[in-house]
Amino acid sequence: MDLTGKVAIVTGSGQGLGLAYARELARRGAAVVVNDINADTANAAVAAITAEGGKAHAVTGAVGSTEVAQALVDGAVETFGRLDILVTNAGMLRDKVVWKMTDEDFDQVLNVHMRGTFTCVRAAAIRMREQGEGGRIICIGSPAGQRGNFGQTNYSGAKAGILGMVRTWAMELQRANITVNAVVPVAATAMTETVPFLKPYVEAMHNGEQLPSFARRELGFGGPEDAAGIVAFLAGDAAAEVTGQAVGVGGDRLALWSHPDMTTTAYHDGGWDAEAIEQEWPTTFADHLESVGEKLPEEASAQ
User: Fold this and answer.
1) Angle at which helices 153-172 and 116-131 pack, to 10 degrees?
2) CA atoms of 188 and 200, how far apart (whole Å)
3) 300 inside domain
């Protein structure tokens, strides 16, 4: 999986999952533009990558605006001469139940996750199309965006929206040989430390303890480095035909998420009024309703 000569941008890569992605891409030979809202954090990440023999350059700024997105692309082109890979990882949380969530809580999270993904992908797509040599765009999703999560109206909505955009961009950029995929990671980061059923496993990792097989396999939970391999794969030549997909990763587990689809259908001549639906519902639909939230194995549910 040689990425020598490739240039990547990884947003939100000063620490956590983003840093793991940036380090893995650099280890594979790519030059990496590191991004973080904090200059010291971004510079420390660059130092860590260069100390390992990689090439990296820091661009500080909070993703969301067109200006920061363009600064990231300009930083890649001016420093390394081109752009081949974009990983949109930057994120934040403002968790509250819907009746307590403020406009600011909602807007801040949507601005970073959803608008930030849009502006960065747009800027990268323009550059990649100008180069005419294809490219790789990898957007980071979340299980919360796939199934919902209590207290995360803003985050779940943004992550679900990102998947919708990924599928659209995969179609729009296919002729330019630019693949667009989503990675749905589960890993020990600052954003998962507050999840109650994951807390004991996060603490175990902080204490240098080995995670049990249940956590790594059934929960698909591990460290940030466990989620980095799929990013390197999707950035490489071996994934040239993979586009529009949502790939789950974490611990020892790798999985494909399905796209939304109709699961149960019925037909009624002349259309469906409320009474016809009331009559049909118990026999055709009632036993096929979808669940919400993560369906956790019993051991995790008991935590």
Assistant:
1) 20
2) 11
3) no
**Angstrom distance (rounded) from CA 83 to CA 275:** 57
pTM of the full structure? 0.94
With H, G, I as helix, E, B as strand and everything else as coil, classify residue 54.
coil
CA distance between the termini of the chain: 39
CA distances (Å), 127 to each of 13, 121, 123, 209, 232, in order? 21, 10, 7, 44, 21
Q: How many CA atoms lie within 13 A of 157 on its CB side?
A: 16
Q: How far apart are CA 234 and CA 135, in angstroms?
A: 10
In a domain, 270, yes or no: no
Q: The CATH number of the domain where 219 resides is what?
A: 3.40.50.720
Question: Domain residues for 198?
Answer: 7-257
In-domain check, residue 262? no
Q: How far apart are CA 8 and CA 236, in angstroms?
A: 11
Output the pLDDT for position 299: 58
Active site residue 21: no
Which residues have CB under 8 Å from 22's CB, separation 6+?
A: 8, 10, 13, 32, 34, 45, 49, 56, 87
Residue 284 maps to a domain: no
Overall number of domains in the chain? 1
CB atoms within 10 A of CB 208: 6
Give residue-wise pLDDT tens across range 83-111. Answer: 999 999 999 999 999 999 999 999 999 99
